[in-house]
Here is the input.
Amino acid sequence: MRQEQTQAASFGLNFELLEREQVQSLIRSPLFIAGLKRPDVALVNPARLAWGLRRACLDLGIRLYENSPVTKLEEDGNFVLARTPHGCVRAARVALATNAFPPLLKRLSYYVVPVYDYVLMTEPLTPAQRESIGWRGREGVSDASRQFHYTRTTADGRILWGGYDAVYYWNNGFGPHLETSQREFERLAEHFFQAFPQLEGVRFSHAWGGAIDTCSRFAPFWGTAHGGKTAYSLGFTGLGVGATRFGAKVMLDLLDGRQTERTALDFVRTQPLPFPPEPLRSIGIHLTRWSMDQADRNGGRENLWLRVMNRLGLGFDS
Here is the structure.
């Protein structure tokens, strides 16, 4: 954390290092032994953000067609045809921002996989329960493990608790049937009460899950198809609420054929290594998750697999 604080300062960011007593004065948990406080960060409700973007689009005269999934893209001269169950849309330019959904360009299926993240929400805490943990503000918290948890409070006094596992299902498994997992919910509940044993007996009122997209470098990538008439941006690995704004600007630059400071970045010009086919894909992903868990349990010490991944520019440390 001291290294992260120093690195942030070189970019003009003021991270405050908190020792154990300072952390406990904010949130009482036996697991929290130090922390970094980031006053420059704001919490966003993703649903409200999406609703706000929708309203802004409508105010600009943009037409939205929900429940009209595009099933196929085809090049048609100077245009691209987007086929839907209700007919075709003919467009001069197409921006693909499909995230974890099965990609419409087959080549992208080699570069991204959907992994499922799960979340619990408690019932509203009583005043006594809230007092037992402190946490009088609305700070968002994430721990520093490789397989990390994230947590925040809500306006009506609940605690959202999620993260840890990013579950991959065989052969890029995807669909509503994977949005619940009793095993993952039970594991999250166990971890919650390890973090807040003083809340033993609190019930969870909601539990859900959803897919995020990830690629081998755990960061977004870009590209074009159909002679530059289609552009894509994906691979955000769960960190897209802020980063997708930059991703969209790059996509628009690519569609316009503009050479900009953004498109000149090596980050934008390069792509991650593709995932191997099954069964190697599942073996590699599960081995990586197991190795990350072992590193968390062994003071951050990485095994040979993680060290090789780092050398190849793969994974969190790439």
